[in-house]
Records
---
Amino acid sequence: MSLDACTEAVRQQDPDRFGAVLVAAADQRPALVTLYALNLEIARAPFQSAEPMLAEMRLQWWIDRLAEMGRGTAPPLHDVLTPLWQEWGRGAGELAGLAEARRRDCTREPLAGVEAVVSHVDATAGALMWTAAQRLGAPAAARGVIADHALGAGLAAWLRALPQLQAMGLGLAEPQPQIPLRLAGLARESLRRAARSSRAVPRSAAAALYPGPRVPRFLSEIERGNIDCLTATPEITPFQRRASLARLALTGRWWR
């Protein structure tokens, strides 16, 4: 897969992050595109087999290749790993944690309550956002702010996907209505904390911190009882997506 093909994969399969990539400085876009293309591949790996052992073997292949890259060994020619190596070099080894966090997907293991969901979101969406933000110039001192923002945005994305996750066996072990309500409240408070400290994050990192369209509204509607995340969540329209990304591009504001 060339860089162009990675870009197309992200455009089709992760349109919110793709739109945010276009806000980043031109010389940083290839790094973000390859990172997000990798994220798509490792998220898909556990579902390439219904047999847990085979699924884990597929995921382990990615972990092993990333570890080798971290030791300075170039990967074999590969659709994603080759352009990733060109952009990240030995730094690709640090991305193995993103794949490690997907092991539970291999066994279709649901999450047991609020704390488990928070831990999972931190290890997946949180780690991904921090990696991208660092690449765009976010300092170590901003890590707490970005962690708060990533948790809020990641919980919102997880709640939006919850009906599909439940069907796949990856949602809540005990799908009680109060759990999405608590998660929505945690997400809103995390986003508020990050917004209060937004000055700690340079504008150059805005593209990495884009939370997606209509996140505060979505969380508010859950808390008001207008959305039952266990059954269905509202779709994002193309207009809503374009308007949200236009705001990011014009203002650089990743917070609400």
Note: The two ends are 36 Å apart (CA to CA).
---
Amino acid sequence: MSTRSARSVTRRQILAGTGAVGAGIAFSGAVDELFAGDGAVARADGPAGLGDAGAAAGAGRAGYGPLVEDPAGILDLPHGFRYTVLSREGEPLRSGEGPVPSHCDGMAAFPGRHGSVHLVRNHENRRDAEHRVPAIQDVTYDPEGLGGCTALEVSGGRLRSERVAIAGTAVNCAGGPTPWRTWLTCEETEDLAGTNGYTKDHGFIFEVDPYRRDRTVPEPLTAMGRFQHEAIAVDPRDGTVYETEDAFDKPFGLFYRFLPKRPMGGAGSLRAGGRLEALRVPDVPDLSAVREPGTVFERVEWAKVPDPLARRTPIRFQDFGARGITHAQKLEGCYWGGDRVYFVSSYARTKEGSRADHFGQVWSYEPRARRLALVIVFGPSTDVGKPGESPDNICLAPRGGLMVCEDGAGAQHVFGVTRRREVYPMARNRQNIGTGSDPEWGEFAGVTFAPDGRTMFVNVYEPGTTFAVTGPWHRT
């Protein structure tokens, strides 16, 4: 998610008009492919994002119109939409366990009783976080870790409860939901015990129960690897877990799959271990070199990770043999749709060591055919020739299309993308404009929809804020 690397591009966003006019991002590629599978409306037995394929049939064509400036100076939305601030960092947690932690990041929505929604929210806290995740007995991994997750319950548009879900972890960036209704939270760090004051090794995935804290075990899923995790997606057919590695400097990150010993075994089954492998595209050491949407690689390979725990050498530095391994800069969002997994490269820059420049890619991998395809390329922008910003968290919208969290310089937005490759603004963060702080830290994160598709939940990273957005989602 967020890094403190210097941004070489600054730009303004022009948000007048509709469709892609001034939206700041241009797309090319087979966008239809993204909506051929599941929509974001959940089945009764699964989390949001694993729903019926028919939900995608009503994909939007022109968005919801221009953004309307919020007189309160918090969140600009299209006409007819409303927001509620559910939670803000520094305010008391409803549980009384301390203040709401800083740096709200990845998030997922799960169905509750009587129409309620359970949210699990990451907190990407490093050692300098103002508000740590409180260390709660029985769910704290490392007392010196300031990150973790909080669990929220929303009913009738109101926050009903809010508590610590797991604590003592570090730099909890994104993650993803499982078909058995748990959340896998990912640490985006490789710090070992004794580094930065930590008492235990970090860089792992942890499983969190969104409903009951007593069912969360604060133990890392070590077989899934120790690296700078970003996000995961689970194949609901066989339980394979796909993982992205967010590395912005060389050697760049890898795209992984984890083959569990107890696939689809329910909560806790991933602790039984499994095999971690990394994607190898023959003769393609860097995915940034692939420029044309629609490019397909048949029968790609998977290489066993030599040392998943990275005891001496980070995985991306390890020796994968004479055939090498395939890297990519800033691998971030990851989600499952239809019969394939999608993953995002947020950007690539030759001056930082990539083979080519781009402003964002979306890739798809079909496990049964072992086929990898470049689906979408982001940028350059329609905004007076300036580059489009980096895509980060992405989710499928309930009536088809994508919602994309922007992570770049300047004003920060949630953008929508339709089947016709039309880009439209869905939200703009105004609370960070004119404050004198770096607008980058006002990025959006964790966009997700309620299981009934009527509410979009999204975070602002700093100051950590969770919003619920309602309105005429049917008006597409």
Note: The domain at 27-470 is CATH 2.120.10.30 (Neuraminidase).
---
Amino acid sequence: MHVAEVEEPHAGPGEIRIATRASGLSPGETLIRSGRLRDLVPVSFPYLTGFDAAGVVDEVGDGVEGIVPGAEVFGMSTMTRRAANADHVVLAVWAPKPPSWSWEEAGGAAGAVETATRVLDRLAVPTGGTVLVQGAAGGTGSVVVQVAVARDLQVVGTAGEHNHHFLRSLGAIPTTYGPGLADRVRALVPDAVDAVADCAGGALPELVVIAGDPARVVTIADFDAAAHGVHMSHGAPADETGAALGAGADPFAEHGLADAVALAAAGRLRIPIAGTFPLAAAAAAHALSETRHARGKIVYTH
């Protein structure tokens, strides 16, 4: 991985371009970089990284209304265009940067918010129900917890004991991950768990037992999902069966960014930051992500 000069992108119809202040690192990109996803995500070089970013609008594409150069926003590039870890980024969806968020928070927010919204919408747990979030202290899991709490759900979150105070601060009931999880959850929530959001991977058999039905488990991290009858949700354009959407379909029609702005204004959503790195230290950022113990989102500053 290295920093290089590439051709400057420009906003097309329905897009905006920002001068980037911060951008996020997705754990999935460490898998792409390492080659572990070579069969699922073919890569041609040079491969440009990054999916979510925040910055100041400096170009507005045709057909875009309600925003002008100089506005502060956060948002996402398209899955095919990516390249958000750069000085200038073209965004396909965006929302105003909440004043209460730092640039680092805003730069790492959009992907986690979109994922949390997508997963919780699919699980459709009724108000007052209980959801277990596996891997609740990570960059995505911590946002899933907060969005679920904002939906008036009871949340049980798994994390190492050193992160239990952190989970309580987000509104979750903490417990440790690993063998015996079903018994620990049963002791905490005698009335059973309605659904499980898996943000960590590696524990689907026990998570299915906890949920009582594989249809009540959604994972974003376990590529063995199909073998367990579990739905794997991802940011690529896909419908509820996993088939590719047709041309022109909007995979982010319900991306949740507007709701995130409202939650941030109410003091109900923060983006925990595990570490900030300049782009030149991207290898160190990937190394932190690969420990699988980063508490919150890893971001680049620009």
Note: Confidence is low (pLDDT under 50) at residues 236-253.
---
Amino acid sequence: MLSLILACLLVGAIAGLLAGMFGVGGGTVIVPGLLLVLPLVGVGPADIQHVALGTSLASIVFTGLSSARAHQARGGVHWSAVQRLLPGIALGTLAGALLAGRMSGLVLQWIFVIFVYGMSLQILLDMKPAPGASLPGYAGNGAVGAVIGCLSSWIGIGGGALTVPWLLRCNLPMKVAVGTSSAVGVPLALAGTLGYALSGWQQSGLPSGSTGYVYWPAVLAIVLASFPLTRYGAALAHRLPAAKLKKAFAVLLIIVASRMLYGLL
């Protein structure tokens, strides 16, 4: 247990630092980190991806609250967009997490690897959506939100990598898109946490301290370490060139995805 807590503190510190430096949620770092440390408490191959995803989403609930409050204080949250996205986001994430409980860990790992490679390519090529129509109503945003929520639940992220491009396409400024995405990410993570807790409720062999596929000792350690490091990461980001930071993050994502791909082949 001590080894696991120390390892999760390290994962949380790295995730917080990178989140502060690159302006993204730590799920793309937390999930691979948990895959390395969860065997320390006896999580088997059949359950490890599910527990990593559920635990990652639970930790994002707390870190996302801090980020959303900071953006709100700067007037960077478009609350009308949040209201329109929220129903689809919540239902899509919950349904995706419940469905994930019926999917094999191998399939979920392949989804994660493919997504991370795609995200890396988008960053390296600086691909941005062309501005389109104005923000749709509840039906349009609800459908998009459901897709974002479902995919995010299978990857263990707060949805920013998917929500921000959509909001940019809807003509929201970058800072507002990021702030709005952070506000949407909290209910997304809450719905995902609930879904993974329910989908793993009767699963045997999970470690003590788990609620379904959510392992709370790891959540606590990750949150405790990530909060202070996020501030230092943000300070470091202001001292380094943004373009080089983005490329460095893309390279890191490629390394992470390649490490997971090697284990799958």
Note: The mean pLDDT is 87.
